[in-house]
Specification:
By secondary structure, this protein is of the alpha/beta class. Bound molecules: adenosine monophosphate (AMP) and magnesium ion.
Length: 333
């Protein structure tokens, strides 16, 4: 049975982690499904609860910057610069693993992914448990990550020992993942910590191809699986506001049971709509929530308004395009 608690009773959840159990906890990005990163049975329970393929490695969460030196035997200059600047926060750093890190958490890779969350409940849980906590997003594999308690409960009730209610997640998209284990630092997954910010610290950083394309050979194992998909069939419409709206008007007139994810308040009388907000930061915070909202309202086909903007817009684009299985209409073409 799953027990839902608040941060007041966090010691119970910390104890649960120590004895090899599973705890869903809030972070500033999305809710995470945590277990002791050094306990292989506990780690297998994460994969089972999510239905996650065992070749998709987990991020290890720490509460003390110094712990990177225990988890990695090669904290190089690039790693140090990123950790100094962005820990704690929404950045995950991939480095060569140390011998204490086992093969279940890394899915057999010789690298380990490490993040230090800034959410105080997450930090307190890690600190009190005395463990490093491995935690993927707390959704069933393939579904949009949960950013509110209701969506955690929908996916995880009965599958984990504890859920800590921490309200709504601020950022709404998973962390930026940067691989610094090779000679050239590489962004494997975009997030709130943007390419522009990272480039100021590591000028030679590159963006991995798989971020905006479908590929069979991604460097980050997780990116090859279906991701962020609601039950509804999603199509993204990109371009100027006016052209995007014309395309969607035409589509909805011939599509039964559809809905529209609007950006900056589009109006489509007679169809279910929800607005992603007025800027890309708001779009990020609302995206996963909105995708699940369409399913909850029985919408079968979704058209999503999108505009190509930089910054966190790259992360929104990455998640949205994946949720649509790369079905994209360029309205200005
Ligand atoms: P999630 O925890 O659900 O946000 O997913 C974690 C992401 O980080 C997945 O896309 C993983 O494939 C990726 N990841 C974790 N560890 C590594 C690693 N050692 N090398 C490359 N990618 C990793
Ligand atoms: Mg995930």
């Amino acid at each position: 049975m799953t027990k839902i608690i608040t941060a007041e009773n966090i010691e119970e959840a910390a104890e649960c982690i120590r004895r090899g159990g599973t705890v869903v906890f809030p972070t500033e990005t999305v809710y995470g499904l945590g277990a002791d990163a050094m306990n292989d049975d506990a780690l297998r329970a994460i994969y089972t609860a999510k239905g996650r393929p065992s070749d998709n490695p987990l991020i290890v969460h720490i509460a003390d910057k110094g712990d990177v030196y225990k988890l990695s035997s090669d904290v190089n200059e690039n790693a140090k610069k990123l950790i100094d600047k962005f820990f704690p926060g929404s950045l995950t750093v991939i480095m060569k693993k140390s011998p204490i890190v086992g093969g279940v958490v890394t899915a057999g890779l010789d690298t380990v992914a490490v993040r230090m969350p800034s959410n105080p409940i997450a930090a307190e849980l890690i600190r009190r448990s005395g463990c490093y906590i491995a935690a993927p997003s707390a959704n069933l594999s393939g579904s949009p990550s949960p950013t509110v308690l209701r969506h955690v409960v929908d996916d995880m009730d009965g599958r984990v020992d504890y859920i800590i209610d921490g309200g709504n997640c601020d950022i709404g998209l998973e962390s930026t993942v940067v691989d610094v284990s090779g000679d050239v630092p590489e962004i494997l997954r975009p997030g709130k910590t943007t390419y522009e910010e990272l480039k100021q610290i590591l000028p030679d950083i590159i963006i991995n191809d798989a971020i905006l394309k479908e590929t069979d050979t991604p460097k980050s194992p997780g990116t090859k699986y279906t991701h962020y998909s609601p039950k509804a069939d999603v199509t993204v419409v990109v371009g100027s506001k006016e052209n995007v709206r014309k395309v969607i008007q035409n589509k909805i007139s011939v599509t039964p049971n559809c809905g529209v994810l609007t950006y900056k308040g589009g109006s489509y009388p007679g169809v279910f709509t929800t607005d992603a907000g007025d800027n890309m930061q708001q779009y990020a915070a609302n995206l996963f929530y909105s995708l699940r909202l369409f399913d909850e309202n029985g919408v079968e086909v979704v058209f999503a308004e999108f505009a190509d903007e930089g910054g966190i817009g790259l992360a929104v684009k990455n998640r949205l395009f994946k949720s649509a299985g790369h079905k994209v209409i360029y309205a200005d073409d």
